[in-house]
Design a protein that fits this description.
The protein has about 550 residues and is α/β, with parallel strands linked by helices. The chain folds into 3 domains: about 1-65 and about 210-295, Rossmann fold; about 65-175, no CATH class; about 320-400 and about 445-540, Rossmann fold (3-Layer(aba) Sandwich), CATH 3.40.50. The chain contains 19 helices and 18 strands. It has helices spanning about 40-50, 80-85, 90-105, 110-125, 130-140, 160-170, 190-200, 210-220, 235-250, 260-275, 285-290, 355-365, 405-410, 415-425, 445-455, 475-485, 495-505, 520-525, 530-540, and strands at about 1-10, 15-25, 30-35, 55-60, 65-70, 175-180, 205-210, 220-225, 230-235, 320-330, 335-345, 350, 375-380, 385-390, 460-465, 490-495, 505-510, 515-520. Strands 5-6-7-3-8-9 form a 6-stranded mixed β-sheet, with helices on both faces. Strands 14-15-16-12-17-18 form a 6-stranded mixed β-sheet, sandwiched between helices. The longest helix is centred in the middle third of the chain and has 19 residues, at about 260-275. The radius of gyration is 26 Å and the shape is globular.
Length: about 550
Amino acid sequence: MITVDNLGLQYGKRVLFDEVNMKFTQGNCYGVIGANGAGKSTFLKILSGEIDPTRGGISIDTGNRMAVLKQNHFEYEEEEVLNTVIMGHRELYDIMVEKNTIYNDPEATEEDGLRAADLENKFGEMGGWEAESDAAELLSQLGIKEELHYKKMKELSGPEKVKVLLAQALFGNPDILILDEPTNDLDAETATWLADFLADYKNTVICVSHDRYFLDMICTHIVDIDFKQIRTFTGNYSFWYESSQLMAQQIANKNKKMDQKRKEMMEFIQRFSANASKSKQATSRKKALDKLNLEEIRPSSRKYPFIHFKPEREVGDQILRVNKLSKKNESGEYLFKDVSFVMNKGDKIAFLSRNAAALNAFFDVIAGVDTQYTGTIEFGQTITYDYLPNDNDRFFSGDNDLELVDWLRQFSEEKDEQFIRGFLGRMLFSGEEVHKKSSVLSGGEKVRCMLSKMMLKHPNFLIMDEPTNHLDLESITALNNAMRDFQGNIIFTSHDHQLMQTVANRVIEISPIGMIDSLLNFDDYIRSEEMKMQREALYEGILV
């Protein structure tokens, strides 16, 4: 258990949070949420001891071992992959190294031998004899094949290193597990495996994530950083979000009587409890909801941008036809090959690949940014599309380094200042923010600008490469709703599971040797054993 006692943190006059008192107990999973800049990652660093608070402190029960997901992907470049995982249990690893050093020393003394025997006993008591097999099993479950287990970390790709560091954090069943954005850079299948693993985890998990599906799968409690305070709420993210929205509506409705408000909240809680009982992940969550005190529930101070895509004209019968589309990288290797599909009215297709560069290249090709490809792309005559690329820097540099109000004006038929300022205000750029230079915008602000540009164009076809990157949970939720309600066609990819699940009616996976085109929803596609076999074959070089 971790106890937080009168914790406070401030930088100069800026207070992030103050007078925080809470306990993190065994068997619970806590999802830490808050607006960008609220201090989520900083709070995790205080819990792990990486930084000190301004006041107050943290105490951990004696004997409890904490593991933290490392953010430096280059920290272990010279280490073997398997050893890097075992280092997650540092005491066990140090014992293993010390005893092996003694055994390999031809000049070891009798005293050294006694020391080695003592270390062997400790090693066995700590489960050391199973360490290598346990580490190997974790790696395999995360998609790191056996032939990579004895290579050095520097020989692995970026996504492979992320998986190894995740295995390191999970290794040895730590009493307290601290994870900051653990699904970043994970493919959908691995992220789903991790959610299942953590949902069944018996110890304490504290996690920051922008993935709503992931938070819903794993969390028994939500830790919300808001109003310069940190509060714990029972339930998963969806329960927190919907109860917070309901509470805000009730506060706004001053005429409604207190007993009616209480009745609404109780009905809401019972509905969520009933849904939770159907899920293996939510047994403890259901018990907690049944005991919930209504005073726990508070409205959030955070605001949601207004995102709404309204097509200027309806699409015709011909939408998009792609035939044998292929693209090679600079080394002459295929990023994707022989991609063929026809889009129908209402299609919203989610694209997948185990190679992020292949997806980036595919969307650039479809959008006409990259013309170096083979195959054909034919849009229907009624189609007007707009593109939200993964890398949008070219829109905010050089001649485009304008004040925000002027930056957006260049994409609008309506040039009136009040109209542009009003539009920006709905996208959460208010007051003097409209005069910020576009070059100094944060990643999330740039994406909100690109979404604004897209809305002003009124396309009937959206091309979106990782549109949730850099966005906070509020913006992701608003974007998800807008894409779901859009009356045109969409092709897109995202690491946000819920976005893929609630928007796509079709999934296409591309690879260097071919593709899979499936009418399953995203969750069924990822979890289906039959599709898993086809996906493995797609990357092994044998099409099923």
